[in-house]
Amino acid sequence: MVISDEEYIAESRDPTPEPTPEFIDGGGESPTRGILKNGKSKAPEKKKHLEGEVIIEERVPDMQLGKCRYVRLHDNVNYVAAGIILRGEGSDTEVLLIQEAKKTCYGKWYMPAGRVEAGETLENAVKREVREESGYECDVIELLSLEVQGSGGELKTKPNQESLGAQWWPVDEVLGKKLPLRVKDFLPLLEQGIAYREAQHITDIPRILPLNINIPGLFIEFMIVRHSLDESRIEVLVHKSITDEQMLTEHDQPFPTVEFGFEYFFAMVVSKVYRHLLEEGGNVVFAPSHVVRIKCHPNPMQSLAHGLSVRLYCQHKKSASKAVIRSPRYHWIPVESKSIREQMYMEKSQYRPSLRMV
Question: Could you say which residues form the signal peptide (predicted)?
């Protein structure tokens, strides 16, 4: 049986997670939805408030694939925070690796990494893992997956359950796999860390770090950018309510947004959203290549207002004519101001954390 996109994607549905039984039985209110006496819930009101100069508008997503009823840390989702720590320049560049103490990979080398604990921010998780496994204190300076920079402490030499110790290794030896590695999945992150350090010498790079904000579900924002053949013109797909480029910086959610549930594979979400937005779907837009914003605050397990919101950079193919939009709620607008393009991470010269769909 062939199922159309419309059966998978419903527009403007209520994204708020259902209240848990304890809220219903207790007669109280969840953080996101009130409970009426007859047992039915009332939909949340659309709210607006100012955060600096940005208008934060709490609205339902444009599209919905399934529904994520709740997101709970260590229950149905885990975050793994890891640090790429470099020192030296050029051929003398070294990376900090830790020697594993786990039975399954005892004695092998890997980057400092571990699960985010309940109530812990992503940045604090990186700091803790680096401290426990290597002995160093660090500061989080940029999102690769997460990149960290050492800021104190001493190299760990005494083994414990976290690791056998830590050591600086020349990056050429690590990339050349001249030592026994736990797994090789962190090598692309190491290459990206090196690329980021090199880019720092070329341009002033605004940092992309996770925003510690409670999100009631799982959401993706699609920032679809189109460059003209001669690179002189840039356009982006936005809501019809966004009428000029200045509004991109004034509104928190100018781009098409989808909510999805755990039953949907990430790549499937991307494919279906592309087909929903554009007549030719993935034929005219490359797969999302970079992350330009993350909202996430890993609250304790019992929290209802916990999830993840990720804004992805999606490049329109130059070889294709401008994509025809399927839905009347979106349109293309030009972005002529370089300052605004930099604020939105549209400039190709800017460093942007890459997206790896594993």
Answer: none
